[in-house]
C-alpha cells in the first residue's frame, strides 16, 4: 500500500512518534525514507521531495515499539530493525513493507536498540534489567552480555571499531564494552548523576584532531575518575581512540575520551528563552536531552534543550561554550521537549530530523539551521472530521489527545498546513461542527461532556482560549449541529437573538440547545419543547444523534432504541417516526440541496450498531397534510455489505445520491444509493474507522479518521476493491486489527472520566493516549452503556466463549448475582479441577444463553420444550386441586421439583434442597448458603460450614439471625479456622467482637504478633493490668535476641523498667548506643550506671581519638571529674608525643583535639595543671584531693605485650594524673610512685621507645631534682626513687649504645672494639625490640604510629650527627658513669633467683601438658584413630622441643638429663627459700634486668670506664648461670 500511496498522491496525518525512547526514529542512509515508531507500528515517510509523502507502515508488533533503526551499511539501506515491549526484535524490508526475520532473546522489556554501522547483520539491543543481546541475523546467532545490573536507557555501536558498544544507564553510568570474544568492559565512565538519554560517537576516529580539548581537562570537576576502570585493548585500531558524547537528564552534555576513559568536556544547557511555544505553561515537563553528532562535522554537536529548542554547539570555542539556536523565525522550533535527532545527506543538503512531544516531525537544513518542513501527527483516536462550509478545504479534526487540528488542505506552499488548538480542552475531542456562515467559528464537544466554541480564524488564535458553555453533559458528547433557534429562543427581533444556535447530543441521551451569544447562560433541553408541542406524556427515548436539514426546516433525532424522529422547526412538531433500525443510531445525514434533482434533498441516510445503512425519502411525509405523526417502516433504499457497526456517513457534494460510510469493519465504502450498488471500498487503515468526510473541492477524494491515530486522504478512482470485505477477507482484516495492543484490561483499571492529559506519559504509546478510548468498541465489544442488548446480538460467539471460560465446568452461570468478587474468585479454582458431576449437555447450552441464576435447575426446567411447559401447567393445576382437598401434594411433584415455586412451602423447601445440592456439587457453597438463608435454616448451614472449615465473613455476619449464642459459637469457630489458615490477626479481631479480649491478646502473643497484642491490650485493658507488662517484657526478650536493641529498650521503658532499657541499649557497645544509654540512665535516676556507661563511651571515643567528644560525655557527671583530668592529660600527652615524633603515615581517623592555649615553656606537669585549672575548673585543694581519691580507687590491670597500645597510653595517663595531683599538693613520695608506675607500665608492655619518651617528657633533667624533694627517712619512697633512677638510666644506657660517636664507629669498624651485630643481640633485647615492633604494626593503632613510629635504632641514625657534635667522648663516659646505678648486686641476685623459680615452673608446666597429651593420645588410639593421633603427637612433640631443648643445645657441654618431679619440687622449694631471704624493700618496686645492663656495658666496651666494665663482668660471672646470659656473655667470660 505504501509505495502506491506515495505515488498516488495519498496524504496521511500519521500517528504520533513514541515518547521517552532514546532511538525510535531514523533516516535511511540513501536519503529516501524517514521512519519513526508510532505506538506498535513504524510509519515511513518519503523525504525525497519538497514535502514529505506517506510511504507506508511496518505492521507486526503487538505492543509499543521502544526502538527503531535503519541499517547504514552499504547496499542495505532498505533494511531496518525495531524492538517492542512484546519482547521481540524484528528486521524489516521497507521495499516489501514486510518482516524478514525476528528474535525474542530478551526476557525483559527492551529499552534500546541499534544496528551496527560496520557489521551489516548485527543488531544490538538492551533491556530494563541490563542484559545486552547481540544478534547476527544472517547466521541466526546471538550472544548475551551483562556488564551492569542496571536499566539500559540507550546504546550505540561505534562507527569506527566494530566490537565497541557504548551503553547509557538510568542512573547516569556510561559503559563501553567489547563484544568480541574478550567480552570485557573497557571503561565505566562516571560523571553524570541522572538518566543517560542519548549517546553519540564522534563521526571521525582518533582523538588527535581535537587536541585543543586536552588543555581543558582541568575544567572538568575533580570527582570524575582520573583513571579508567578498564584498559583498552592493545590492538592498534582501538589504541587510536574516539570521542563519545552523552546527553543526560542532569542537564549536561559530556564529551568522553575513549583512550583515557574520562570526560574531556562538559557542556551545561543554557537557560534559553522559550519562543513560539504552544504548550500549556502550567504543565511541568521533564527534560529530555538528546544529542546528535552529524557526519562530517567532528567539531559540531546538535542537542535538544529545555522547551523544544535545538542547539548547535561549536566544540572548538574555548571558554564559554558557543551555541546557536536552530530556527531563525518565530514558530519554527518545537514547542515541547525533543526526543530523537537523526540526519542524512540528501542531494547537496544535510538534513536533520527531529521528533518531539508536541507531536510534530520536523526536517531542518543543517547549513542554514532553518526548518524546511513540519509534519504534524496525531496522538489519539480520530473521532470527528468536519469541513468548513465557509472556508473551503479547511478540515477540522477532533482527536483523542485533547487537541483539535485545523488542516488547510488547499495550501499550496505546505501540504501539511495544520494549526493546533489545545487551550481549555483537557479531554478527548469527540464531536466538531463549523458555524454555517461565520468564518473560523468551530464548535467542539468532549469526552467529559464539555461544549465550547473556538475562533480559529483570528491571527491570535493560537493563544486565545475558547468560549465554554456553562452547561455540561454528564457523559460523552456524541454530536454537535448548528440549527435555527427553537423555544425558548426564537428568531424574533433582529439583533436580539442569534440566527443559528448550537445543539449538542451526548451519552446520557439529552440534547441541549446552547445560545452562542450567551454560552455562560443555561442551555435548554429540547425534550421540554417536544413534550409541550406534541403533548407527550410517556417517557421519551434517549437521544444518540442529531442532524438538521440544510435548509433548517427539519430536525432528525436518532434514538437509542433505533427509531428516528423527524421534527419540524421552530416548535419541533413531530412529523413522523422511522422504525427501521432496532439498534442505537450512530449517524444520520441529509442529502445536500444543490443538485439537479430537488426531490433528492428529502433523502436521509442513517446508520446504527447494525451493519446495514438505510436511506429514506421523506418528500411524501413532509408534503402530507396529516395532523397526527406518521410511522415509516419501509426504507427507500437499503445499503448492505458492511459487517460491523456504522460510525459515520457523508454525502458527496459533487454527485447526486452518492454516499460514503465509515465502519468498524476497518473500511470506508462509497455507494450509489439510487442503484443500491457498492462502488469503491478503502482498506488503508489499520484500525476501526470512526469518521468520514467527502472532500468539498475534489470529487475523487475522501478523508477518513480511525482508531489507528491517523487521518487518510484517498482517491476513489485508485481503489482496487468495490465492496466491503466478506468471509475470509473480513477475517484477515479482523486479524490485522487484533494485532493492535490489547487495551481492554487497562480500561478497567482507570476511571473513564480521567483526563488523558493527566495520564503518565510513560504508559502510553504516544503519551496522552494509552490506546484506550471510550466511545468506540474495544476489541469488538460495544462501549455504549445503554446498548447491552446490542452487544449480545452483535457478537453472540464472543460472549458465549467468554462465559464458558469463566464458568469452566460449572453447570450454571451466576454472574447476575452481585456477590462480592472475592468469593467468586476463591471458588473458581476448585471448580476448574473437578469433573462435572451431572448431565452437562443441556446445562451447557443453557449456560451459554442465559445469565447466571441462584435457582439454575428450576430455571432450566422452565425453559424446556413447549410440550413440557404445557405438561407443567396441567400437573400444577392438578396439584393445586389436590391441595384444596387438604392432601399432600409433594408426591405428585417428584419429577417436577421446579413447580414447588407455585405450590406449598414443603414443596418449595424440597426445591430449595435440590438446588442447594446442585450448588454444592458444582463448588458454589456461597450460593447454597444464600438459599439456606432464604429457607431459614441458617443453623445447619453454620454447623456444616464450621465442620468443613468453610466459614466466611459473610456467614459470620449473617449468624446473628440464628441468635446470640449461635453468633458467639460461629465467631469462635471462625477464629479457630482462621488460626489454621495462619490469619492470626484477623482471628484476634473476631474474638474481640465477642469481647474475648484476653483470648485475643494471648493468641497474638503466642504467635509473636506482639505489636498488635500490645495495641489491643493498651486500648482495651486497664493500664495497671499485669498482662501489659508481660507483653512488653516478652517482646523485648525476642527483640533483644534478634539484635533489635533500640526497639527492645522502648519495650522496657513501656514496661516501666528503665534499668533494663539502659542495659539492653548499652549491649551493642558502639559510641552512640552508649551515649544514649548513659543519658537514659541519667533521666531515669540511675546516676551510677549512667556514669559507668559515660566512661565506657568516653573510652570508645578515645580509641577513635575524639577527645572533644569524650570530654562532652564525661562532663555530665561530677563523679567522673577525676577521669576528665585523665582524659585531658592523655590528650596533652598524645599531642606532645606526636609533636616529638611526627609520623609520615597518614592516619585513617584524624585526631579531634581541643584548641587549648598551652604554656610550652613550663614543664609538662605544670602545663597539665594549668590546663586543669583554666579549662576544667580545678581551683581548690578539695577538688584536687577529691579527684585524687577518685583516681586512687581505680586499679588498672598490669600491662603486657598484648595490651592495646591506646589502652597502655590511657593507663599511663591515669598514673601520670595521680602524679600531677601529688605534684600539685607537694606529696612527693606519692608522685614518685605514680611516675614509676607510668614508666614500668610502658616497660611491661614491651614498648621501650614509649618508656624513653615518658622519662624525657616527665623527667627531662633526670631524677636528681625529685630525689632532693623526697624525705630521706621514708625508706619506701627512696626505694621507689632508686627504681625510677634505674629505669631512666636504663633508657639512657641503650641510647648511648645505639648512638656511638662517629670516631668510635670508625675505630670499631677497624676492629678496635667489639660490635654487636643484629644477629648477636641478646635474647632479652630481641624480645624488647620485637615486642616494640609488633606493637607498632598493630593495624588499628594510630596513636602509637604517631608516638613510636620510629624505632630507637631509626631515631639514632637521625640524631647521631647532632649528638656527636655536642657530646664528646668525655661526656659520654660521665653519662655512662651515671648509669652505674643499674649495677646493684643485691638486685642481680634477686632477679637470678626469680629466674630460677620461673624456669622450674616452666618445666613443671611442660611436664603436665605432655602428660595430658599422652593420656589423650592413648584414648584416641583405643577409639581407632591411631594414625591421625600419632601424626598430631609427633608434630606437637616436635613443636614442644624448642621450649626445653633450645637452652640445652646452646651449650654443647650441657646435655640435661630428664628431671623427675620430686627433684623439681625440691629445686622450687630451695629457690623460694632463697627468695625469702632477700629484704622486702628490694621486691616492692621493679628494676631493669641487671645482667642485661652488664651485657650492654660490656658491648659498649672501650668507651665505658674500666671500673664499670670490671663490675659488670663480675656480676655476669656470679649470676649469669642462665643459658641466654651465658651465650650472650660467652666471649667476655672466656
**Roughly what percent helix?**
25-40%
| Mean pLDDT metric | 79
How many beta strands in the DSSP annotation?
57
Largest sheet: 5 strands, mixed
Distance between the termini: 118 Å
Q: Helical stretch count?
A: 47
Percent of sequence in beta strands: 15-25%
- Rounded to the nearest angstrom, the radius of gyration is 51 Å
**Strand order, sheet with most strands:** 42-43-44-45-49
Question: How would you classify the quaternary structure?
Answer: single chain
The coarse overall form would be: elongated
Uncertain residue ranges: 214-238, 275-280, 743-851, 1305-1367, 1425-1455
Classify the secondary structure makeup into a structural class: alpha+beta
How do the helices and strands line up, and which of them pair or pack?
Elements: H1 2-7, E1 11-13, E2 25-27, E3 33-38, E4 41-46, E5 53-59, E6 65-70, E7 79-84, E8 89-93, E9 98-103, E10 110-115, E11 122-127, E12 132-136, E13 141-145, E14 152-157, E15 164-169, E16 174-178, E17 185-189, E18 196-201, H2 236-240, E19 243-248, E20 252-257, E21 262-268, E22 291-292, E23 300-304, E24 310-314, E25 322-325, E26 338-346, E27 349-356, E28 360-365, E29 370-376, E30 382-387, E31 394-399, E32 404-408, E33 418-421, E34 429-434, E35 441-446, E36 451-455, E37 467-468, E38 477-483, E39 501-506, E40 511-514, E41 524-525, H3 526-534, E42 543-548, E43 554-559, E44 564-568, E45 573-578, E46 585-590, E47 603-608, E48 613-617, H4 619-623, E49 630-632, E50 637-639, E51 646-651, E52 658-663, E53 668-672, E54 677-682, E55 689-694, E56 701-706, E57 711-715, H5 727-738, H6 744-749, H7 788-794, H8 796-807, H9 821-833, H10 841-849, H11 856-861, H12 866-884, H13 905-921, H14 925-935, H15 938-948, H16 953-958, H17 964-980, H18 984-993, H19 997-1006, H20 1010-1020, H21 1026-1041, H22 1045-1054, H23 1058-1065, ...
Parallel strand pairs: 45-49
Antiparallel strand pairs: 1-57, 2-3, 3-4, 4-5, 6-7, 7-8, 8-9, 10-11, 11-12, 12-13, 14-15, 15-16, 16-17, 18-19, 19-20, 20-21, 22-23, 23-24, 24-25, 26-27, 27-28, 28-29, 30-31, 31-32, 32-33, 34-35, 35-36, 36-37, 38-39, 39-40, 40-41, 42-43, 43-44, 44-45, 46-47, 47-48, 48-50, 51-52, 52-53, 53-54, ...
Helix pairs in contact: 8-10, 13-14, 15-17, 17-18, 18-19, 19-20, 20-21, 21-22, 22-23, 23-24, 24-25, 25-26, 26-27, 27-29, 27-30, 28-30, 29-30, 30-31, 31-32, 31-34, 32-34, 34-39, 34-44, 40-41, 40-42, 44-45
